[in-house]
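## retry 2 of 3
previous attempt timed out at serialization; input unchanged, resubmitting
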Amino acid sequence: MKLVITMSRRFGTGASIIAEELSKRLDIPVYDKAYIEEQLHDHMYESEAEAIRKLAETPCIILGRCASDILKDRMNVLNIFVCADREDRIQRIMAKDSLTYDEARKKVKKTDEERASYYYEHTGKTWGDVNDYHMILDTSELGVENCADILMHYFEKCEYI
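## retry succeeded, writing output
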């Protein structure tokens, strides 16, 4: 499999859980903000875009960081956007981070605003625009636990794996 998966997501959707499950099943790494920033800190790359292009030379999953836009011209890239109802995301963050409802609601709102701003600043596009992704997964409807299965079935059907 030569597939590179980019996964953009609203905060609290469970996308990182989906990415980790796919990583195990496909035996490919997941790269997130912390990993990419570490590469920059270690001066391995001059920019995030350069780091992402280099990481995408081999099969992997890249969470966020405008990777869907940076890699948009590559044929072996599947861009996924993961969303969920706001209430579900608030409940997930409450449980994950041991926050009150109000704290989780504010964190969800703030993080989504930061991600939208970051995406627009680096791409000039609207974050979450369906035209920028090959697939949208709604974890409120599909369930976080089912999304990896759905994607694996899709990969098999399209003979990516």
